[in-house]
Amino acid sequence: MKLEYTVIEEIDYYRESIELLFRIVNNHSYNHLKNDMLKRLDIKEHVKISNQLDQLSRIEEDVKKHVDFADQDIKFYFKRFVFDDLCIAKILYQSIKHSVFSSDKKEMKRFIKQSFDNLKNDNTMELTLANTEIETSVYEKNQSVSFTERIGNLECEPAQKWQLLELMEHSGKHLDKLFEILDQMIARMKKHEKILEELKKESSDYWIEYFKENDFLKLISSFYNIKEDSFPRKPAFIRTQIMCCDRVIFNGNDENAGDYHILDVGITFDCEFRATKKRLTNEELYNGLKLLSDPSKFEILRFIRDKKAYGQEIATELKLTTATISHHMSSLMIMGLINIEKVDNKVYYQMNKEATRNLLVEAKDVLLLEEQNEI
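Below the sequence we write its predicted structure tokens.
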């Protein structure tokens, strides 16, 4: 039986604004992204990718002219925070990104504040910082840990813990400031509404046609090395992302993640994007080597090199919490360094040796390229 799916065709201007501001503040230009992508894609894809990223570059340059990026609030909310793809604004907006409802600004702010209050007041929920958000999981053995202690246990700098503590204690104040910035940003972005709608429609139409003949879990399998029959066959929502054009994020790879799957897929992707990559970009190499340099992730990969293991088993062996294991697995999954399979309600992980070998070989080739040319 094919999975029920919905392609969301409306543009989430708040989310698109957050992504564009984040990229500008952290110097992740679309022109640089285009140069990287063209190096690793087949020549037949160059025209499409160049056209998409040239249009995003024009929007980026226009925003740079009309937004004060020296403003301290913009720096606070959009500067990189702990991880390369995380910032305070994304943390504030994260509860909305896991929902598929549309609402007015007042209702959205109420929903977000309530989500933060629940996070703060539920002492049974362990907090973990991940690449794009704060993740939660239930403490083992029905533990109850105070809010300040849960923030204190996060793996980040003391100053960043104080920022998160203040953010959650005064989420209403921060939401007011953030939405004020975003409202001004959206007014600027809507000057380019025709371009944004065309980019969104092209991508949405592609996936609508794709799912007439193909299954959602087959696509997830190709993106994330997840076996097709490994997760519940829940309804799926596909949200095409414009400004976050080069990422695919799967929300729903856990049986407790809700009553539906959500796939956020950048407009530069199609169903065969992974297969057409020629080589990793420099940014992907940085991120991959950074993952391998983390002692816990390194030991996890060693442990699952030649066998499958589930989260609790790995946590017990390496003396880590299951929440920490979940966080590490999310990072390794995004990089494609693990294979995932669900059996009898347990999620099993195993190293993706081909992807790991490819990362190391390409890093060696890039680092020693000059030396090889001299020989």
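Residues 253-257, 274-278, 371-375 have pLDDT under 50 and may be disordered.
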